[in-house]
Prior knowledge:
The protein is α/β, with parallel strands linked by helices. It is 43% helix and 11% strand. Strand 5 (189-194), helix 7 (201-217) and strand 6 (221-225) form a beta-alpha-beta unit.
Amino acid sequence: MARLSELLPQSQVPPEFAKQGEPPTIAPDPDVCQECGGLGYVRVELSIDDPNFGRPVQCRCVDAESQRARTDRLQQYSNIGPLSRLTFDNLISRGRSSDPRDQTHFQRCVDDAQAFAKDPQGWLVFVGASGCGKTHIAAAITNRCLELGTPALFVVVPDLLDHLRAAYRPDAEVSYDQLFEQVRTAPVLVLDDLGTQSATPWAEEKLYQLINHRYNARLPTVITTNKPLRKLDDRLRTRLGDPSLSQPHADPISTVHLLEERRPLEDLGMNMIGLPMIQEMTFESFDLTDFRSPRDQTQREQAYRAALDFADNPNGWMVLLGGRARDRTHLAAAIANRRRMSGELPVYVQISDFLDSLRRTINDDDQRDFDRIKRTARDCPFLILEDLEVGMRSDWVRDQLFQTLNPRCLARLPTVITTPHTLTKLVTDPGWERLARLLTDPRFSSEIVVGETPQEEQTMAPKKARGRGAAKRT
């Protein structure tokens, strides 16, 4: 019999199996765990006397997969959807308001929201106008709860009511009872936009049943609304404002956080000081070279210097008359921005918006809001009223303006008023005598003409000759 060493050299590898150089490396499957090879278990080198010797140990990939599966389940349960992008990390910690008071309070709301997400207890209620950051904070609470493994359900109130109505249908995927029970007993419930739903008796009853159950069970709840609590249904208001439900990390005397305090004329919706275009109108950006005649140049320069002096030393009233509307607005905004840089927050409103807001409160039969709006304009430390049109024939309009401005006159509160009219128009227009006396009182009011008015330009323009020989030869 031939030896193995004699046979091996004689054997030949078939050509199809012949390899050149190093054997090819097979790339590992990225979806397969490299520690256990996809088995889910590994063997650990142990001494023979160890009780776990020879026993398979669960691989770390199984624990990671379990955590991912739990996270996915929580994410699906939460109903957070695309709002998963709204977190505390990308939240403006001091809010969008330019008012330092609102910024300080917003920071406090964020701190309380983070504490709540870490240890959900009690209720948090956020009140504020649309766009002030309520939904972002509510979504951030939900997302932080999910990160920490706490089940949290996020629902928009009008959408929830729509789903409940749809659940009555025979072909509904989820029955009404199942859906309502899921929301009512959620470990952490976030209700966004309470108060924006249709105020039907059915909707009010369902919301009360939901909130009352969570109130009695003391289940952690977050609620956002753009309505003052006093405008909500009485039963809801007593639940949301109960001090015994105070979030323990927040102010113990109230469950309610006002993200931006509702000062009617200081909301961005009415106070133009917060508008980007107004903020760009400064003394530095005012173009003194944009004049149309030597007289226009002189008047614009004088108006510029007078407005700058008033902004640095506000004393009495300033009435910006005539000229181009953009120049009047620019100088009024420049005064407001300069006072703002000094730490003051002027109230800068369009007169038509001010009057419309008063009318709305009358139509809504809300005397409290009516009084608050007038009181804010009447008593604020620095007021700018844009576009006074004295041609309005309404006695009500004239009375409201006089009742707002006369107390400011008596208190000598700094006030800027812009108007397209000339001084003559202000004094002679029938029905405006009382206001005209205030605006033209030399003891505390200065009238500044902002460039030539169109009437002046037309009067001063050279007349065209009518036919041959119309102009005299000298």
